[in-house]
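User: quick one - fold this with pyridoxal-5'-phosphate bound?
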Amino acid sequence: MLEVIAQKLSEKNARLVAVSKTHPPGRIMPLYLKGQRIFGENRVQELQQKYEALPKDIEWHLIGHLQSNKVKFIAPYVSLIHSVDSFDLLKEINRQALKNNRVIDCLLQFHIASEESKFGLSEQEAAGILSNPAFSEMKNIRICGVMGMATFTDDQSLVRSEFKQLKSIFDSLRSRFFENSPWFHEISMGMSGDWEIALEEGSTLVRIGSLLFGNRN
Ligand SMILES: *Cc1c(COP(=O)(O)O)cnc(C)c1O
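Assistant: Sure. Structure tokens for the protein plus pyridoxal-5'-phosphate:
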């Protein structure tokens, strides 16, 4: 399965985040040995344990909701935080990145699903953050793009329209705030059930778990 997905992604210059949450290091290593280097986790404590147990050339992505008081644990090594959904969180990431003498790459998470429970910003809230003078003072974070989760549904046209919405938010933010920022190029969308639609709609990072690892308990 890894090979099939990797081939389709490479045709579109997109990358795979192998979502290894709930699976132990022993399940991750076979993918690593096949060349996969980007892994995604949604809980800080679990990420921490796997970071310690596994090879250090893995790029760890935090894809789940992040509480400010936990940023310090992952700041020394995390490669990309997909789930920035508030200015306060961004400030804390900047503070911890500075302490570690790093620049931490982040994505802004948007609420695109019709479900109520998902985290994420509106385009207006994001514009508020990006136009805040305090934002331009933050030298230890870099906003590299956007992330979103579509509604969990069999209705493919709904899913597609939500991905189109995220792409249009990306385009609009890029032209308003990132015109001269080539690093603002990531659109993190697509999971096991909808990654092919996401790819058609412009995804650059797909986050796939169960399709690679089987169902989670
Ligand atoms: C668990 C998770 C995924 C992967 O889900 P699958 O359906 O198993 O591919 C992707 N993104 C986020 C934010 C997740 O929490």
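One thing worth noting: The radius of gyration is 17 Å.
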